[in-house]
Amino acid sequence: MDALASLAEGFGHALSLQNLFWVLVGCFLGTAVGVLPGLGSSMAVALLLPVTFALDPTAALIMFSGVYFGGLFGDSTMAILINTPGQASAIASTFEGHKMAQNGRAAQALATAAIGAFIGGMISSILVVFLAPMLADFSAQFGPAEFFALALFAFVATSSVVTDSAVKGLLSLMLGLAIAVVGIDGVTGAPRFTLGSPLLFDGISLVTVTVGMLALGEVIYVAAIARHSGQGQMMRTSGRPWLSGKEFREALPAWLRGTAIGVPFGVVPAGGSEIPTFLSYGLEKRLDARRPDPQFGKGAIRGLAAPEAAGNSTTGMAMGALLALGLPVSATAAIILAAMRQFGLQPGPLLFEKTPDLVWGLLASFFIAMIVLLVINLPFARLWAKLLLIPEPYLYAGITVFSALGIYATGAAISDLLFLLGIGVLGFLMRTFDYPLAPLIIGMVLGPLAETNLRDALMSAGGSPAALFDGPIVIVLYVLLLGAIGLTIRSKLTGKAGAHE
């Protein structure tokens, strides 16, 4: 009941004119960016990060959550209409969603995606309301050793489990950790990896890294390689933008199963919603094979409904894990965590105690965002598709200018623009050679946390490494870590064996 009372107070804050405005802005921006192939919510949040320093923390985080949710809605629109998913989380939706569009059911496919995303997001938001305070209380039992083990688990999971090449994922992670330690050491006061340059004494800003990697790197990549790749043919979306009773009953079990699969992945640092969307699609395909008249491959509505619900339920729980544990499960969540730290906010039990207005206002905004996204996506999907008509040179030139202005506004230093350019080139090279970006971002965000807690744990134990393995929570985290490594090795070996057959 305390959670419901706190949520009611949160609605009082979220429904203020200012915060309601930022919910709308976040949802519109997230959907607009998601519709454009190659751009995702992580890029949108990275671009907005420099300009939110002038906002109230509650307003900024509400807008970011709207962008996070809205990006998934937009990704699915393009996956269905042109068979081009905006992000990896929408790949599973292309298989049956685009088939539905080819069969003249594009409007019904878009309705299925929008309702599925709404159901998954709403159910996960309800669970977050009750689970987040419990997770925050649980995190109060964490000491330096537990936080170090948690960060280590996040590092290994995001760099090896969700990437095709564990080596590339780990190298990306190490690069992020290397960037994070540049600057003056907070404990000893000694400069580290500064090459003797005063410009590096303050380190390399996370804002510069995220904008350079996710925005400028994408611009350079598109200009150099992907510009002439072309788009698929747009499907017409004529017909009713809603589902009949039969279609709704057909999709409902898949929506619920997808939500059930996606929810647990919201608190596991496994790279976001890619894995649960594929798992839910695979489950529906296996169930469909048992039916007397299998529909998969012909535009099965369940094959679209399940991944959409799974993706959004994962995102909802991810925000809860971020607030309660400070654990980012994707690149977008990592950037939102960085924004919280820029505002001086530390996720966990103290966040719920010191700033309840912010926490519960943000949780209440999830429900509002789901309704807003359903309203702007169910009837207006065709209008969002018009964004594809923006010429690429204008679109990416605008992103470049906005990136440079945002970075310059944060420090008013030419050196920041040089760092932005260098990191943008690095991001381009990583994309070209298929190195994942999420491990780098998460390594840079969680790297200082891991280092600080490692030092605290060792100093409190007189330098004894045994302190890192003291306590039941630590043991459980390391067991999960070993399990994740074992699953990774098994999947790689299985994949190689299948390739040789």
Architecture overview:
- It is a single chain.
- With 501 residues, this protein is mainly alpha-helical.
- The chain has one domain.
- The protein is 73% helix and 1% strand.
- It contains 20 helices and two strands.
- A two-stranded antiparallel ribbon has the order 1-2.
- Strand 1 (183-184) and strand 2 form a beta hairpin.
- Helix 5 (91-102) runs antiparallel to helix 12 (301-325).
- The chain starts with a helix and ends with a helix.
- The model is unreliable at 228-232 (pLDDT under 50).
Order of helices and strands: HHHHHHHHEEHHHHHHHHHHHH
If strands are numbered along the chain, what order do they take across the biggest sheet? 1-2
What's the number of domains?
1
Distance between the amino and carboxyl termini: 58 Å
Largest sheet: 2 strands, antiparallel
Poorly predicted spans = 228-232
Number of strand segments: 2
User: What is the radius of gyration?
Assistant: 22 Å
Mean pLDDT over the full residue set:
80
Shape: globular
